Amino acid sequence: MSDYEKDILLRKLTEVNIQLNKANAQLEEANKKLKEYEEKAKSAENASKMKTLFLANMSHEIRTPLNAIEGFSRIMAAEDSLTERMKYMEIIESSNRRLLGLVNEILDLSRVEAGEISIKKTDVDLKKTMEDIRQLFKFRCPDTIELKWSCPPVPIIMLTDGDKLTQIFSNLISNALKHTTRGSITYGYEISNDHQDMKFFVSDTGSGIDPNFIDKIFNTYASQDAPKNNGYGLGLALCKILVEKMGGNISVQSQLGIGSTFIFHIPFHGTIGGIATCGPSQVAEQVVHTIRANSLVDPRNQKTILVAEDEESNYELVRIVLQKRYKLVHAHNGIEAVTMTEDENPDLILMDIRMPQMNGLDATRIIKEVRQNTPVIALSAYAFEDNVREAKAAGCDDFLAKPFRVEDLLQIISKYLGE
Questions:
Q1: What pairs with residue 157 in β-bridges?
Q2: Is 21 exposed, middle or buried (0-12, 13-18, 19+ CB in 10 A)?
């Protein structure tokens, strides 16, 4: 073989090696993408299974309190003993709180994932918040579990979203109750990071978390005991999202058979022992109303409230609460609300949004054209931020979401009637 032929052969061999290296690189890239696709497919399959299990659990979680509400409502109606009726009423009330909490949790998670939730910061007395949480859970803890809280002796006022903070604690304590049969659940807070952060915690003596699952504990639809229908996988995911929305972080420490401790840090702004660490802060004045405050009023001095509500049961609730203090008139739809406003000259209007013939928003627009100074409070089960904005844009002075607390209804009416 001549040198020329050898040179050509070497060049062809070099070209073949280059093509082979390219092919190997492409094969490696293809294998890498294939592995990523397989992982994504596996993840999607797992997510699909968890969502299916989630829906099955949701059906169980919703039907359980509904069954108690339905059954004990009928039993209570046929029971003559006041003691027994009160016992049934407590069961109904407990089931109602459980159902409402579940619905709120689903809606809150939907709002958060859609980016619609907002953090509303006010001055929060942390010690009072801990006491309120204890009152919330003291009847839910069995005798075998001690619920206790721990905090510094000095009074601390924190600029934060008190409702969201309570919700995070409620979700964590509810989660602890699912996995703790005896022992204690301890919650509280302490100053951290040289007064820059507030460290909050919930610790239990429960079953603990499987080390293989602990990295997934905050994932949506994830629940280590979901196959046993003990959890629906929303609470911890919502806690993580809310804590991060408030500028903080959350973590968990756990040992099987010993218990778990959830810790979340939130940046601190407020006062410690009355001394501002990050700017002035004052405790907002709290006004407390109770149903018992509804004493009889001289009929000659009674103010008139127009209640626009098409559901008789909802109107009956408002009537029972307000009838001793106010003169009530009932409109069954938006058209009646408009005409009765002219006839009755009410001092305040409670306006349902979804009604037949004319909805509450259209009725409010018409009423406000001629009676700008008459307060209109929207009462609606549509409680997303968009619904509140639409109500305000239509002319409603305020918004109260259904189901509402009686105390909140009394407070908002007093606000506009100057009582």
A1: 125, 271
A2: exposed
- Distance between CA atoms of 341 and 295, rounded to whole angstroms? 26
Task: Give the tens place of pLDDT for each residue, 268-284.
Answer: 999 987 776 644 334 33
The position carrying tokens 């004493």 is: 295
352: tokens are 């349902």
Q: What is the 3-class SS of the chain, one letter each residue?
A: CCHHHHHHHHHHHHHHHHHHHHHHHHHHHHHHHHHHHHHHHHHHHHHHHHHHHHHHHHHHHHHHHHHHHHHHHHHHHCCCCHHHHHHHHHHHHHHHHHHHHHHHHHHHHHHHHCCCCCCCCEEEEHHHHHHHHHHHHCCCCCCCEEEEEECCCCCEEEEECHHHHHHHHHHHHHHHHHHCCCEEEEEEEEEECCCCEEEEEEEECCCCCCCCCHHHCCCCCCCCCHHHCCCCCCHHHHHHHHHHHCCCEEEEEEECCCEEEEEEEEECCEEECCEECCCCCCCCCCCCCCHHHCCCCCHHHCCEEEEECCCHHHHHHHHHHHCCCCEEEEECCHHHHHHHHHHHCCCEEEEECCCCCCCHHHHHHHHHHHCCCCCEEEEECCCCHHHHHHHHHHCCCEEEECCCCHHHHHHHHHHHHCC
Q: What is the pTM of this model?
A: 0.49
pLDDT digits (tens, 9 = 90+) for 311-329: 888 888 888 889 888 999 9
